[in-house]
Specification:
The protein contains ten helices and nine strands. The chain has helices at 29-38, 48-51, 56-65, 84-103, 123-144, 167-177, 191-194, 200-209, 242-251, 273-287; strands at 16-19, 43-45, 69-70, 73-74, 109-111, 148-150, 185-190, 213-218, 258-260. The two termini are 15 Å apart. Bound molecules: zinc ion.
Length: 288
């Protein structure tokens, strides 16, 4: 990108990725990989539930043979726990997943860090547990060659999915845990989670300066959303100024994939997979 002018994604689907959640996990990853490649996208972001039921090495070969790269591997085991034993098990689960991310040669391991353990009211303690775990996982990330992408989630999820809620908070954690900017700790910026943040433009610029932007996820926030988890909109159907957001992310130096990630139980997950992919392709090229 030159001079802050946004280049269209028209004819550039190779720069775009499909997060497999967008298709509702209705068929095997083997089939999904081929669908996404045939539709012309350059990358895929698979989920652990799909990958861990396969031979990961064979899957990695299939993805490469299809001409795809892996824009991100979804996602971390939630970290905060009531007991030390459980906390350690959560960290171990993430270490195992990081090794698979290495086999897949994923551009990043997406970290959705987890909420407050059931029965606890200790938000600060949950955040401390996450920071301790990320510091430990950073060593494994370096070993396997896959950076950790902290994904702040909209604060509506603070109780049950993520105690990490703004880009500014994520960047502060990155600087505290990885002050030398090793290249193995950064952020995933998801339009759905970040669009409302009054400090977003400044946060994106700071993230770019620190070379911390590892992923960029798109969908839309529907004006009258029916479900904060499972009613994400297709790009162009909601309130997010997606071209402006991509302009900010790319002006900050990000050159990676634009990844579509839509959870939509009552709409997109009921539609034919080929139709969903073709509408994703059209919207990416016209309204993103
Ligand atoms: Zn995301």
């Amino acid at each position: 990108m030159a001079n802050g002018i946004l280049e269209s994604l028209d004819g550039k689907l190779e720069r775009c990725s499909i997060n497999t959640a967008t298709l509702g996990h209705r068929e095997s990853l083997r089939i999904t990989v081929d669908r996404i490649a045939r539709a012309g996208f350059g990358s895929i972001a698979p989920w652990r539930s799909e990958v861990e039921s396969c031979d990961v090495h064979a899957l990695s070969r299939q993805i490469k043979d299809a001409g795809l790269s892996v824009s991100g591997y979804c996602r971390s085991t939630y970290i905060p726990a009531l007991s030390l034993t459980e906390f350690k098990a959560n960290v171990e689960g993430n270490k195992k997943a990081l090794h698979d991310a290495g086999v897949l040669e994923a551009r990043c391991f997406v970290m959705v860090v987890g909420g407050i353990p059931v029965g606890s009211q200790d938000l600060a303690g949950a955040r401390t547990q996450v920071r301790d775990a990320v510091a430990e996982l950073l060593n494994v990330a370096k070993e396997v060659g896959v950076p950790l992408a902290l994904e702040p989630l909209h604060p509506v999820y603070a109780a049950n999915r993520s105690v990490l809620n703004t880009l500014g908070q994520a960047l502060q954690w990155c600087d505290d845990i990885d002050p030398d900017r090793s290249g193995y700790l950064g952020v995933a910026i998801d339009a759905y989670h970040c669009w409302w943040d009054p400090d977003l433009a400044q946060g994106i610029a700071s993230a770019g300066n620190a070379k911390r932007i590892l992923a960029y996820h798109v969908c839309d926030w529907l004006h009258d959303t029916q479900d904060f988890l499972l009613d994400r909109g297709m790009m162009g159907d909601g309130v997010i100024d997606l071209p402006e957001l991509r302009r900010l992310v790319e002006a900050a130096g990000y050159v990676g994939s634009v990844e579509v990630e839509i959870f939509s139980k009552e709409n997109w997950w009921k539609r034919d997979a080929e139709e969903v992919l073709s509408i994703c392709a059209k919207r990416l090229q016209t309204v993103c």
